[in-house]
Structures are given as C-alpha cells and as structure tokens.
Amino acid sequence: MERIKENVFSSIKIVSFAWAVVGPLTMKYFADYGASVIRIESSSYPDANRILAPMKEGKSGFNRSGYYNYYNSNLYSMTLNMSHPKAIDLAKSLVTKADVVMENFSVGVMEKWGLDYEELIKIKPDIIMLRQSGFGTPGPYARLPAFGMTLAGITGIPNFIGWPDTSPLPIGVAAYTDCICPRFASAALIAALDYRNKTGKGQLLDLSQFETSLYFILPAILDYAVNAREPFRTGNACSFAAPHNVYRCRGDDRWCTIAVFTDEQWKSFCKVIGHDQLMHESKYNTLLARKRNEDELNGIISAWTMKLTAEEVMEKMQSAGVPAGVVKNSEDLYNDPQLRYRGLFWPLHHPEVGMFTHLGQAFQLSETPAEACMPSPCLGEHTEYICKEFLNLSDEEYLRLENEGVFE
Amino acid sequence: MLSKCRALDLTNENGFLCGKILADLSVDVIKVEKPGGDPARNRGPFWHDIPVPEKSLYWFAYNSNKRGITLNIADIGGQDIFKGLAKGADFILESYPPGYLDSLGLGYPVISKINPGIIMVSITPFGQAGPYKDYVASDMIAMAMSGLHYQTGEPNGPPINISLPQACMHAGADAAVGALIAYYHREATGRGQHVDVSMQQSTAYFSANAIPFWELSQTILKRSGQYRPGVSTATLQRQVWPCKDGYIFFILIPGKTGGKAYKGLLDWMRNEGMSNKDIEKIEWENMDMATMTQEIVDLMTVPIQKFFLTHTKKEILEEALVRNISLCPLSSMSDLLNDAHLRSRNFWVEINHEELGTAITYPREFVKSSVTSCRTRFRAPMIGEHNREIYEEIGISSMQLIALKEAGII
Questions:
Q1: Which of A138, A207, A250, B380 is the one with CA 20 to 30 A from A280?
Q2: Segment B207-252, tens digit of pLDDT
C-alpha cells in the first residue's frame, strides 16, 4: 500500500470528520505536506461528493465520482458507523493519538456524537480542534444546514456579477465559498500547532464559512459602512481602465480578455490591432475619452478579435506588453501549460477508476514541495490499516468489530 | 499565536490579504512602501469619496493590524537598510514581477545568505517560472485564465467577471498558508525557503467538478445564468430564485444530502396550499443524484419558484431556520452590517481613525480561538507612520532619519 512520505508535517496526525469540499481542501494543505490524515466516512451516509456527478463511465458508485476523487488525494479513509457506540469509542481512541480533530459539519453533529471540544479535551488535553461550519458556533444561524451553493448568496458576492440592468448572477463555480474558509482555517491551524509545540496548550479554533468569505469583499463592505454605497453591477468594465472587457474570438464560444491601464499599453494596443490612427484620436487618446466612447471602442476591438483565435489575441497582446488572457474553459484549463508546469494536476492510478487527474498543489515551496503519494481513497479503504497500525487492534478484535457492523 | 514573528510586507493589492491574515494571527507585519506611499493606496473606494492616498478604503480594509514604513529599495542606501531589516525578519512578502527583487540584489538567494531562516513569499499573476511567467495581468486576466470567468454569465451572453478583485484574494489567502507551512518547517530545521504563489493557480485550485467533467466525459461545463450545471450529469438546477423582495440561493439536491432541506420546504409549501400532487409523489430522498432527469427537476422547480415569490427574504430565512431548510437570501451590504447572526457574534467592530475623527466598521476576526484573540486591533498605517520606531531598532538615529528623508530614501 502507498504511504504518505516524509515532509513538513510528518509528525502530525489528524482525525477528520469532513464533508464535501471545505473539509478535503483543508486536509490537503496538511496531507500534501506529510501529515497522516484519517478521514472518517460512513457507507450509510456517504460524503455528498461521493454521489455527485460525474461518475466514471456514467456508472454510479461511491468510488467512481470524479468530484470526490479530484479532491481527496493523500488521505486515509476509514469507515465508522457513528450510530454504533463502539464506533464512538474507536473515534475517541483515534483522538488520543491525534494532534488535531477537524470537522465541517453543521453545528450539532459533533455534539450529538459526544465529540465536541469539551469532551475531546477530557481524553486528549492538548488536542487542537478545528471547526468550519457554514455559520460558526454560536449564533442564531449556527444550526442551519449550509452548502457553498447557498452560502454564496448570503455573502453578497453575487451582487458584483452581472449588468447594471439585470439580476445578480451566481459565481461560475456555484459553491464559491468552499475554497475560501479552508485557507483561513489552515493558516490558523498551523499557528495553533506552533503554539502548542511552544506552550503545550491545545485549543479550539472555530471558523465560519460565511464570515471568512466576507474578507474577499471587504472594500465593498467598508464602502457601505462609510459611504452608504450598495454595489452596482458593471459587467466586465473597470472604472480606471479602457478597454477592459472580454472579446469574442474565432470559434465556438471563444473569448479573450484585454485590459489597458496605461498610456504606454494603449499605444502598444493600437499598434497590435493595426489601428495606429486611434492612438491620438481625441475620442480615444485619454482614459476619460475612452471611457466615454467605450461601447464604440469595444465594437472596433471585437471586429478585430473575431478574426483571430483567443490564443492568437492573447499572444499578440502579451508580446506587446498588453494585459490579455484567454477565457479558459475546462478543456483549456486541463491542458494549460502554466498550470501543468506548476503541478496543479496530479495524474494518479486509482484502484477503481484507473488513471485519473487529481487536484495537485496550490503553490510551490522551494525546499519542501507537496508530494502526490496516494490517490483518493476508496470508501473505507484504510479501515483495517488504521485499526491495526494506529489503534493496535488484534486481528480478532478487528473482525469482531467488523461483524458487529462498527465499520459500516 | 505568532507574536514573536515579524514580516516585511512589500506587496501591492495582489498580496495584501496574505499579510492581513498573518497580522491577525499576531505576526508583527510591517508594510514597506515607497517614499510618498504605495501606489496601491490609489485604489478606491475612498473615505467620503475623497480620492487621496491616506483615505483609500481598499488600503484600510487589508492593512489593518499592520505597521508601516517608507523605504526606496531601488536606491543602494535603501537596499542596505532593507538588508538590515531582513536580518531581523521571519517573512518577506512581495508581489513584484518575477526577477525584479533579484535585479536589485534583494532576491531570495541574497537575503537567505544574510538570514538563512527567512521565508520569502512571492505572489504574482502566474508564478516565478513557466511559460506564462512574464505575462502581464490584471485581476480580471488572472480570473479568465483560471477558468472561473468562463462559467459565469448568461448562456447566450459573454463570460462575466466578478467586479471586485478576487484572484488576488485567492492568492493572498493561499500565500498565508504557504508561508506558515514554510514557517513550521523552519521552526523544526532552522531553514527558510521561497514560497511561490500564482493568482491563476490559486483561483483555479477550486473549479468544482469542471476538470473531472472534462476528463471523464469531455464535457465543458457552460455558463448557465441563474442555474447550475453539473450537480447531476444531465441536468441544470436553479441556484438563484427570485422572491418577493430579492433573491434566494437554494439548490435541489436529491438523496440524503439534499432530501431533508427539500422535505422542510415541501412541508411549508403544503401548509400554505402550494404543493401539488405531482411533486408529492416524488421520492426525493431515494433519488440518485447522478442519474436524475431534467424532467423531474423542472417539475419541482415551477411550484417552488411560485412559492418563493409569495414571501420576503426575511420571512424565508426565518422559516428556514425553524424548518432546517438549507437556503440563504442574497445579502445587500446593508443586510450584512445588520445581519442578526453576525451581530450576535459581535462580528463587526469599530476601529478608531483618529485623524479622520471617526471610527469605521471592520470585521472583528476570522477565527475564534479559545486561547487568544485574533481581532482587528488597529487601523492601517499612514504613510511612513512607524518610520521612527522601526528604524530606531536597527540603529538609525533621528538625525539620520532626516537625512534619509531628504535624500528620498525613506
């Protein structure tokens, strides 16, 4: 069996009661750097992503979901039937050997299992517990079940998407908030591990997916607090740049973004599109003039971009020092030379679906790079291994518990 | 928690959030601006719409809990002073184009010789190396290149960007994590390292199921307006629902995951006589997410849509809390500042801006720690506000400070 390799967090053991995306993205920042992360799952209540599309060859199965398998590399999966009292006992034994317990269920689930912080410190006084529910504990919404797809609304972020005269739109990746909280949580958790190493003290870290997401729109919140201004939707325009838009290119649904901020970029831009005369024309020669005549200008640009591929537009602009980028669809993203160069994707052999692209590293560390060690686990793939290696159960004990349905 | 650490923060708006997160975790973060102030101070919105560098709300938002000095690192004297500061620092955060600090003789190879434990964190649109490393980009360009832009918008219209910078937020938050992984390693080994963060990559890090959809079925997930493709293989589900006075975010997810929310909603609709016999027949909790049909989704969408239009977002949220229906209203900024949950958690805190003669509302903290506070303590620095106290630490006298000011170095 593959194992996690030696890295920054090799001495760290994490027991994770994770759900959907927030849990796995948080676990990855530790598992990719050597932590042993044991993800507790259940076959009677499988993770939401194990039943989400797309399925390999269109056939449903807990180990066949591309959504799950994309986000869960480097983790151990152990199944526990948490409605069985002996499963709770096993979970507690794991906690006594762990540094961290992390979870992102709605508030109330860990309490129901007797695994809230007050209980955990009785069995492991220096444990660090990391909680990331939708709304955080406590508070009037604490127990409201939440998904990234619903939380995206309460953050107010969709107010910034769309046109002045249309309704707000959701963010393309519907569960936008899912990727926000894990960064704040992981930073806090590393600080807490360091604090424990230096003082011997564990702690409870409680984050709210709702609250952390607001850090992504702070200037707009301050704008309201100070100037009483509500957001207005501006499509792809930018008040201090013109042109600043997406332009249709040759092909089906192909687009390229172009953004011109400075005089120098404007002059280069005019040369690239072969309209040198625009450069000094009073309708376009200053930012304010271009903003006034933006629609007309966008028309001129589109006439030029539609004859070219999005890649050609990007390359021509970039060679002249003008900010431009292809609006990448998922095929483009999958083949993106820069993302591939930087290891965003890890092709790993998965026991049930074969070669499959897993999400790789978020950033590059020069001395301790993240490592792809294990594909996403099949449901309960490591239950026996964890029982024997981490909990030192004998073969007989393990079989007895299995027969009692503890591992379902 | 990290109160013994110091970071020198040279970033522009592409990297602000990294230092903000570190500062909230008690790192002593010192913003290093060029004399006269960082150009990122020109970023709006502004306090009372007065566009001057010391009234930028963008600057305020992400530089609270940081101190600030001015220093011209393009000057040889300034570089000398920077090296002195780097000796006593744990982190250097920067967002210059790749190679710029090297060209000044202040890149990681040089600084790590002066201070082998230093952690240098670089945040750029595409990263320090690779085919796009020298591409120029704004936030929108990085969003486009990350795949997020393509999926946002109406099916028959162009891709639409989020009109607030976001790629820099993903990168800034990621950078804080990368910096601290490097720090954890440093504490065990004494060795620092270079952390290389890309706005494109950090934003592309979460693309929901777009990549597996492409790999497993060569399907490109498209823009779908207020609907969401890809929850199940062949269906579009409504995510944004108009209600009486705004919008509700709710999604029909079958099986155990979404079954409870749907049951709660259906009970409420039934109470108000707005269910119908077709949807009562659907065994939602036993339905398979991956194989559900568009016909069934549409059958359910119509009565739910009608129902939401009969209530306000406040009524819908209140009832959702009672019935455990996972949905949320779309908040305006005013809703956020008055939100009952945030208020009960004391999420908002007033921070004094004595020079403006007022206080401004900020979020208190992104994490509740049982051993310490991670709260916003003080406002962002004025230009060069802490020059004296910080330069004194490295032995620069007040007379020398005046000379450095006159020479344009600080």
A1: A250
A2: 999 999 999 999 999 999 999 887 777 788 899 999 999 999 999 8
Residues of A in contact with B176 (CB under 8 A): 183, 187
Query: Is A380:A40 a contact under the CB 8 Å cutoff?
Result: no
- Chain A contacts of B352, Cβ < 8 Å? none
Is B224-330 in the same CATH topology as B6-205+380-406?
Answer: no
**Beta bridge partner(s), residue B362:** B349
Among A85, A344, A104, CA closest to A210: A104
Burial track B104-117 (b if 16+ CB lie within 10 A, e otherwise): bebbbeebbeebee
Choose among B151, B180, B361: nearest Cβ to A187.
B180
Looking only at the bridges linking them, the beta strands covering A324-326 and A255-259 are antiparallel
Closest-approach residue (CA) in chain B for A47: B257
Is A178 catalytic? The answer is yes
Q: Write down the architecture of domain B6-205+380-406 according to CATH.
A: 3-Layer(aba) Sandwich (3.40)
Chain A CB contacts of B212 under 8 Å are 54, 66-67, 69-70, 356-357
Determine the angle formed by the axes of helices A310-319 and A263-272, rounding to 10 degrees: 130
Q: What is the pLDDT of residues A203-235, one digit of tens each?
A: 999 999 999 999 999 999 999 999 999 998 999
Please give the C-alpha separations between residue A362 and each of A32, A344, B82, in angstroms, as whole numbers: 10, 7, 29
Question: Which positions 121-180 of A are in contact with B (Cβ < 8 Å)?
Answer: 135-136, 138-147, 149-163, 166-175, 178-180
Query: Cβ distance B26 to B14 under 8 Å?
Result: no
Give the CA distances from residue B152 to residues A47, A249, B156, in Å, rounded to whole numbers and listed in that order.
27, 18, 11
Task: Write out pLDDT tens, residues B157-168.
Answer: 999 999 999 999
The pTM assigned to this predicted structure is 0.98
Q: At what angle do helices B167-189 and A181-199 cross, to 10 degrees?
A: 20
Question: Is ipTM strictly over 0.90?
Answer: yes
Domain B224-330 = CATH 3.30.1540.10: yes
Residue in A114, A113, A109, A115 with CA at minimum distance from that of residue A82: A113
Domain ranges of chain B: 6-205+380-406, 224-330
Residue A106 · residue A143 · CB < 8 Å: yes
**Domains in chain A, ordered, with CATH?**
13-216+342-403 (3.40.50.10540), 244-329 (3.30.1540.10)
B contact residues 114-173, partner A, Cβ 8 Å cutoff: 126-133, 135-138, 140-142, 144-154, 158-164, 166, 169-170, 173
B360 contacts A330? CB cut-off 8 A: no
Residue B214 in contact with partner chain A when CB distance is under 8 A: yes
List the catalytic residue out of A32, A178, A263, A295: A178
Q: What are phi and psi of A116, to 5 degrees?
A: -80, 170
